[in-house]
């Protein structure tokens, strides 16, 4: 491999370690974990909780529980969206 290719690979490795340290460490160990974009366990738990709150609100006619369940379900569905844009990291301005 040539010198410019080595530099590019080192830069790529550094960016990967900065963006997703868990994935980078698992890759170094030879047991790669799923990248952050595909980890949605928390979103599934939120959706399950939202459905439980929503059903409880319907069974015990309580509008506040129904509204809470609907809001939580909306948040969970947004988190499950595979095409959601990741927020860009803003760097502080240099003085």
UniProtKB/TrEMBL annotation:
InterPro entries: DUF3040
Protein name: DUF3040 domain-containing protein
Species annotation: Streptomyces caeruleatus
Membrane-spanning ranges: 41-58, 64-80
Entry annotated with the keyword Transmembrane helix: yes
Taxonomic superkingdom: Bacteria
Keywords assigned: Membrane, Transmembrane, Transmembrane helix
Keyword Transmembrane among UniProt keywords: yes
One Pfam family hit: DUF3040
């Amino acid at each position: 491999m040539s010198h410019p290719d080595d530099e590019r690979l080192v830069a790529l490795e550094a960016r990967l370690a900065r963006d997703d340290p868990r994935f980078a460490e698992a890759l170094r160990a030879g047991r790669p974990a799923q990248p952050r974009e595909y980890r949605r366990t928390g979103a599934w738990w939120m959706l399950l909780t939202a459905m439980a709150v929503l059903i409880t609100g319907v069974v015990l006619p309580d509008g506040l529980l129904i509204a809470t369940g609907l809001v939580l379900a909306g948040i969970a569905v947004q988190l499950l969206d595979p095409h959601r844009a990741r927020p860009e990291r803003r760097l502080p301005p240099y003085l």
